[in-house]
Amino acid sequence: MADRVAASAGLNVASSARSRFIGGISGLRAIAVLSVVVFHINPHWLPGGFVGVDVFFVISGFVVAHSVSDVRISSFRAYFCWFYRRRFLRILPAIYLYVLVVVAVGILVLPTSDVTRYVEATGIAALLGASNVVLLWKAGSYFATSSENNTFTHTWSLAVEEQYYVLFPIFSYWLIVRKPSSARVRTLSVAAVVVACLLSLASAWYFTHRWPAFAFYMLPTRLWELGIGFLLRYRGLRLVRGVAVPGRSHVVAAGSVAVLGALLASLVLTSADAFPWPGALVPCFATVVVIAIVWLAPGGWLDRLLQLRGLRFFGDLSYSLYLWHWGVVVLMRWTVGLDRLPLQLIAVVLMLALALMSYHFVERPLRHDLRLLALGTPLFFGIYALVGVAIAGACLALLHEKPRLGLAASNNVEIWDPARVAVAEPAGTCPIARSSADFGTGLKISYRPTCASVAPHRIFVVGDSHAGAYQLMMNHVAARRATPIVLYWSGGCRMLDIDDAMLPAGCEGFRDAALAEVRAAAKPGDLLFLPGLYTPLYRKIWDDAVPADTGLGKAELPLDPAKIARSQALLGGFLKQGLSIILEAPKPNMPTAVFRCADWFNRNNDYCRPGWRVPRAEIEQRRSRPLAALVSIQQHLPAIYLWDPLPMLCDAHFCNGYKDGKPIYYDTHHLTAFGDDLLLPDFLAILDRTMPNASARTARPIVRRGVSP
Length: 709
Known about the structure:
alpha/beta; 2 domains; 7-stranded mixed β-sheet; two-stranded antiparallel ribbon; 29 helices; 13 strands
């Protein structure tokens, strides 16, 4: 194959004993891909299996250098075009097909959610070798929820390799093809590659604990892994020149045991907490030694082991299997689940079937297609570019049509999405101009009535993601009461610290900045609304199992007087400024994220078994401690209104995820658009009682609907 492509480009390729196919590397590829597949099916089976990708990097660094080791040509342009023609034939057809198929299936079954918002963008970026950049920008950690549920997360490693291929033709042409005649120049050139690898290794050390996502996803911290593979191929023969290394010698046999043991141990023991530094060191350098043994000292037991037919089979299939396995894993997580052994076995069968079809009908045929090989260089790359653009366009068109084509219930944003921008208000209400801007770790959203008569007072809403989930309701309030509203929200950053909940990094700065803006802008008669999550969760949205402690045990814990006093002091300052204050009482929550279980194809997922129907008495007990804290604050500051949504969200006996067939909750605790609409009449009634009397709070009797101490 290499000879044929080279000949078509006018290159001379000579084959030597040391540059022919190395069968043991195929077996090493099998170990790498199978470790990744096993890890993704069930990480408990092989906790460090993700390092198989690092094994691939070292192999790629070696194999790509090996594939050009006997190319001889004086023109860099011809070499450059020949190299990229081979890379395109090797990589792009399969990934083009994968992106198109998986985007189409995802449009059908993936719900509309924050986690899936950038799935298609990641897939389109994968066509350009830039998916790692999108993942760094939008998803963060490889082990984050948004990464684990993105069907294109695994393409980050392909992007790293493709970015490496931008650099490779430059230094490989100089070192391998042209071969500097001066020993001093050659030594300096190799030294430059070594320095680049050392700098990359240093950056991996530096960024692992300062910017872990960058350390994981980006080429600067991974270049050393590809580079040591290249250096092995470039310097390996020189290091053993004139020395016979029999593969069956006792030294090689003993070394093979040690190095294979180290590699296999890394697949079990490597921790994601210290990765890639120092976690990638053992698997990468063990891989270098394994490659050196099977290349320079063939015939030993390790070489024979890695050339077993079963390993060779998976090694040949490794690219297609790596490409398709992750799509199967993620799509099954979103639909029927992947928690039970029968489902995991079904996943394995699907992975193999798709990989075999991709390998035999796409990957191999197009790599050897004589018509493609015969195309002129401009036409060849033009066709690939045109196909890539067409697939990207098809993905964008499918994404645009997702609300109509998708099967997931949550695609109906009119019912599900409380943050949608386009909101239809009843005739006669005031048109609203909505704007938003980043604000620290969160957002600042302004609702400005544009009608002739605007209310003299403003509403300020400050809170965590539960404040963000009231975006639709605030739009309705602004329109129906012609009242300007400013909403500040940041996930996990509630305003009142009344229990032992841990707040995310950056919350203190967000809270201080938001409240400072309110103090500076608010006038007597304005309203401050403080919603937040206080009821203990059954589980987080992405937890597979409901923990044994369902939060009931916290109900009997004593309140912290110091925290309550700090909250009272904070709120007292706003009361003295002349503001009215509404606190939201703890809302019910569900043991299951409703959007993950809203469809016929995911409702029987193991995750969904706890359901979304909870006895009201249980909810009352779960929220009793934070409710007592808020009631205590209200008793010391009776001008504060404590608004309780629970009576609108629950019936006499149960709190449900649905009402009249429509979802109240989006996930386990955030309300849907329908949930906002459900609470709107009561909130408007409370608002009408509260704001007009802001200047005479001491004479106003306090009413607490639905709240009992």
